[in-house]
Write a structure and sequence with these properties.
This protein is of the alpha+beta class and about 525 residues long. It folds into three domains: about 80 residues, no CATH class; about 110 residues, 2-Layer Sandwich (Uridine Diphospho-n-acetylenolpyruvylglucosamine Reductase, domain 2), CATH 3.30.43; about 240 residues, no CATH class. Helix content is about 30%, strand content about 20%. Helix 1 packs across helix 2 and helix 9 packs antiparallel against helix 10.
Amino acid sequence: MFTLGLVRRFSAGRALLQSSVKEGAPLNIHVFKAGKPAVALKDEEYPDWLWTLLDKEAQEAQLKATDEFRYMRKQAKKLHRQKLKQNNFLAQLRKRPPAPHTAGSARESPFSMQLLVMVVALGAGFAIGRTSTRQNPPRDLFPAGSTTTVADLRASSFSSPADYALFQRCVKKLQNELNLSSDDVDEELWRVITENPGWSSVLWSHKDTDTAKRYRIRPRDAQQLAVVMKLCQLYRVPVQVGVPFDGYKTDQYGLTVDLGRLDRILAYNERTHTVTCECSADVGSFANSRGLSAMNGAQPLDLALSWLGLAAPGDTVNGYPLASLKSAKVVLADGTTFTASRETLRILAPLGRRFATVCEMEIALEPHTDECLVVFQTRNVDRLVELADHVASPLTYVGNFGFAHCSLQTGESVGVLKVDRKQAQSVVKMARRLGETHVVVPVCELHPRAPSEVGPTTNSVAKLVVSDNFAQGRLTELGGAGVLLNEGPEWDAVRRLKLAIDPNKVLNASETLVTSSTQP
């Protein structure tokens, strides 16, 4: 065994070795044997395999040198192309006209022009959005701390003066726009309205009192009602909304909107027992036919007032308890229509139809209950307290209504006991012994008989009294419940109104009021 040592082993050394062999230069190749000194070989002593090895090494070195040369040439071309692109780009920049450099240039300013444009756009959008929100606020937003009062709110022109010519033009325009038939509009005799002390002129006075006229219009849906309210506000025509009843005085002036045709059941959800109906629909009969009731969620006082045809401000909407309503479609005095939540209805309910009319309702029905209301009509409050002590049940007392369309006479009072059917029998027996007039009404059958009545004008203020301690016979007065806004201080609910009924937005600012000299 022996080991062959070469002087150089790198590729460059191997190339030099082969070139030396071809040129005849001497090679110093030594052979090492174990335990003996190295012996130098002569040229003629080189074996064939060594020459083969040298040829192979030389070929590999040549191929590698060729690959390296190609790679270097490729890289040089790539660098040349990049240099050409750079030169072309610089040449194009030199051809452009120089940008003016001012003191506020982008190089000298800490903010770029793009950032400045973005900030200006955001600021303008914020300002426009804030202005739009103020002009068109969400209808269901009533923040605390608002200073809006009754005097700030614009109602429909219920008592505003308007001449007879404007009144006739308003009715004619309504007939044309709504395509009303003779069944939709009634033209009735109307007595002349005397001069109001607060106005300087007479309300459409007429020479012949027998030929003075008034109109009653019957809209078929909420859209037509909105058009009527808008035109009456535009032409300054007094308008009153509701369902006139027997005995209602006819010495009212202006246009009467009869809601009697809005009596349809629009939808019913079997799963949630929710009914969507118009304001004059007979929801009570509809609910009873399905073994349900729309009045269970109310307090005894609300039920009694609804049954008597009265309205408790803030507690009922169209005679139905506010707790049973989920939402409602409301038409404002200027014809604006929107969907109000329960909280909005709680604020709008005391204001009456001069400000808003609930034309559609979504009511949650409940299963029947065995509770009954025992309603007493009396002039002796002590007897009501005695009845309440006998059954140990809370008594709701309503006094001094005196409304013309009710069976109550001036000075009479109403007491209401809410008991179950078994207790109702004992209460009836005691009422007969005391000689008190009474009526037993099952709660499940209770519903407004005329939910959209137009209440007559009255100056009487009702007092709501509830007794919690009948053993001592004390009645605690809760406060006045007058329905007229011009009586006493403003309602606290009105103070909480924000711009939802903005006085500047109820009457559209883009529309000008029509005068008698304006062309139709």
